[in-house]
Specification:
Layout: E1 3-9, E2 18-24, H1 33-46, E3 69-70, E4 73-74, E5 96-100, E6 109-111, E7 114-115, H2 118-127, H3 148-158, H4 165-169, H5 176-187, H6 196-209, H7 220-224, H8 232-246
Parallel strand pairs: 1-5
Antiparallel strand pairs: 1-2, 3-4, 3-5, 6-7
Helix pairs in contact: 2-5, 2-6, 3-5, 5-6, 5-8, 6-8
Cofactor: [3Fe-4S] cluster; [2Fe-2S] cluster
Family: Belongs to the succinate dehydrogenase/fumarate reductase iron-sulfur protein family.
GO biological process, one term: respiratory electron transport chain
Length: about 250
């Protein structure tokens, strides 16, 4: 395939960025989107030009670092995949592809297509954990029975990889889906009840401090989420927050 790539280039966080056009040829449908960018960067390096910087790690759809806005969609035109799982067969010969970083005040651009998503880490640090005494007489598994439906819902919430697609998809740049997934995975389990009140209050407070917007109730976050995190988690977090604040 021959393609035209329009890519956001920005030298650093303080520099003024701009779109730059790159023609590329010889792209095969079985290539992943990141492999296509690798081909482009190899060409740029051979020409003595600065390669396009983008985030990646596992390239297996697990780490969430390959977050790109492709033709206006987080992770591109496919569903339930990350950018590294997106294949070039989703595009046609002669297509123009616009590639940008995720846009949100809480996700400042570092360089080119890389954004700073440590705001998510700070939300997680505010309450996304349980305190367990693991010293002494440890056991292989917890002996508290857990309802199967609750366990399944908790595991489903825990599949969130923190990529930020929900934020990029939301016109208010809301982090409600991410935060609610991290709240839900503990709210559904008995081990998470001890710190339930502090958890939801602290995580929601930190989410607001980071500058994320309010939920739009449009559902774009769930549609664009590569792991299909359900909007039900937002409803659950709202209930948890109401309960926590009612208790004073």
């Amino acid at each position: 395939m021959k393609l035209t790539l329009k890519i956001w280039r920005q030298e650093n966080a303080k520099a003024k960025g701009a779109m730059k056009t790159y023609p590329i040829d010889g792209i095969e449908g079985d290539m992943s989107f990141l492999e296509m960018l690798d081909v482009l960067n190899e060409e740029l390096i051979n020409k003595g030009e600065v390669p396009v910087e983008f985030d990646h790690d596992c390239r297996e759809g697990i780490c969430g670092s390959c977050s790109l806005q492709i033709n206006g969609e987080p992770h591109g035109p496919d569903r339930l995949v990350t950018t590294c799982q997106l294949h070039m067969r989703k595009f046609n010969d002669g297509d123009t592809i616009v590639i940008e970083p995720f846009r949100a005040t809480a996700f400042p651009v570092v360089t080119d297509l890389i954004v700073d998503r440590t705001a998510f880490d700070r939300i997680q640090h505010a309450g996304g954990y349980i305190s367990v005494n693991t010293s002494g007489n440890t056991i292989d598994a917890n002996s508290i029975p857990v309802n199967k439906h609750d366990a399944d819902d908790s595991f489903n919430a825990a599949t969130c990889i923190g990529c930020g697609a929900c934020v990029a998809a939301c016109k208010n740049a809301s982090a409600m889906l991410f935060t609610s997934a991290k709240v839900s995975q503990y709210a559904l389990l008995p081990q998470g009840q001890v710190e339930a009140v502090e958890r939801v209050e602290n995580m929601v407070r930190q989410m607001d401090l980071e500058g994320f917007g309010n939920c739009t109730n449009t559902g774009a976050c769930e549609i664009e989420c590569p792991k299909g995190i359900s909007l039900e988690n937002i409803a659950r977090m709202n209930r948890e927050y109401l309960s926590a604040t009612s208790k004073g």
